[in-house]
Specification:
By secondary structure, this protein is of the alpha/beta class. 33% of the residues lie in helices and 19% in strands. Strands 10-9-8-11-12-13-14 form a seven-stranded parallel sheet, with helices on both faces.
């Protein structure tokens, strides 16, 4: 049997070379590898036609997909137009937790299975969450900036300026998937008390105390968000939710920017209702020049980098190669879904 054409539409994070290396190690000569390098992250991702968080153009992807049966990508825009122009295509593996750059109804209509690599950045995102959390509690970036500017703030030992410890603190986690559950395990090592709100989590598997959202907001010294962005969760931390939080609490978001009303957060920081906040994701990215967060006090921010580790890229390449191998072995979407870390099937073949 001749090798099956596979397009790797890589970028400068999950690179073509990295995916090709894992594909060759996993399926050997069963595939003929073709490569297309997309400009992300040197060029920001964004919407392309009807899909979001995509990189590259429909036209270049259509040209690269000529005769291709399997595609592996992190950011390529698999729109209705692209899928309609690729009649040989049967599998798209998206090297991320959610296929926001793929038109799933169109893929289903064209008989294309879409798989993802859930958990690929769980370690990185969990570690980054705790790093942001501790940086916000102790105001490390502000103290560093002051020292670089020539200040020596011994007055920060004054009780009113001191930070807080994680040991003994109550930390509420909204969402208990691959990232939230790992954050919980790390926090337990700090001797923090962990509360969890996730209506879809099995209480028997939760490392912490399951509670409803109002109790979590009212009881937690730190609230950390790890929920998916859905119509139900969009804007869940709004002005009313902030008012239900403990005075002087800390808010952390490394999940999705759409979960939070950021102008309301900025007001809460200015008023002192929130003691501090830490964010890696925003409702508009890149962060607009007029964002109220830029002038808010006691906020720690990073530019959507929680998953940016070498290990995340390697893990994404390995999981995507395993998903291709499962497809070539004839395993259906159900098998992929139940195969643990291999990949998750988003849809099935027609």
């Amino acid at each position: 049997m001749p090798p099956i054409p596979v397009l790797i539409a890589g970028d400068h994070f999950v690179t073509c070379g990295l995916v090709a290396e894992h594909l060759r190690a996993t399926v050997g000569e069963a595939v003929e590898i073709r490569e297309l390098t997309l400009p992300w992250p040197y060029t920001p991702f964004g919407p392309v036609a009807e899909v979001d968080e995509a990189s590259g153009s429909e036209d270049e992807l259509i040209a690269a997909l000529d005769g291709v049966r399997i595609a592996v990508t992190q950011m390529a825009p698999f729109t209705e137009r692209v899928l309609a122009a690729a009649p040989e295509l049967r599998l798209v593996v998206v090297c991320r937790g959610g296929p926001v750059n793929v038109n799933i109804p169109a893929a289903t209509a064209h008989g294309v299975t879409v798989r993802t690599t859930p958990g690929r950045n769980a370690v990185a995102a969990a570690e980054h969450t705790v790093a942001l959390l501790t940086a916000a509690l102790r105001q490390i970036p502000a103290n560093h900036a002051g020292l670089v500017a020539g200040e020596w703030r011994s007055d920060l030992y004054a009780l009113e300026h001191c930070g807080d410890e994680l040991a003994g603190a109550t930390v509420g986690l909204v969402g208990y998937g691959a990232i939230g559950s790992r954050v919980a395990r790390i926090l337990h090592a700090f001797d923090a008390e962990v509360l969890v709100h996730d209506p879809y989590a099995d209480p028997a598997t939760v490392t912490g105390r399951p509670v409803d959202l109002p109790e979590l907001l009212a009881s937690s010294q730190v609230v950390s968000l790890h929920a998916r962005l859905t119509p139900e969760t969009a804007g869940m931390i709004d002005a009313a939710a902030l008012d239900r939080m403990r005075p002087g609490a800390v808010l952390v978001n490394t999940a999705r920017g759409g979960l939070v009303d950021y102008p309301a957060v900025a007001r809460a920081l200015h008023s002192g209702r929130l003691r501090a906040a830490a964010f890696d994701v925003f409702d508009a990215e890149p962060l607009p020049a007029d964002s109220p967060l830029r002038t808010a006090p006691r906020v720690v921010m990073t530019p959507h980098l929680a998953g940016a580790t070498r290990q995340t890229a390697i893990r994404a390449a390995r999981l995507s190669a395993e998903a291709v191998a499962a497809h070539l072995a004839g395993e259906g979407p159900d098998a992929a879904t139940t195969a643990g870390p291999v990949a998750a099937a988003v849809n099935g073949r027609r």
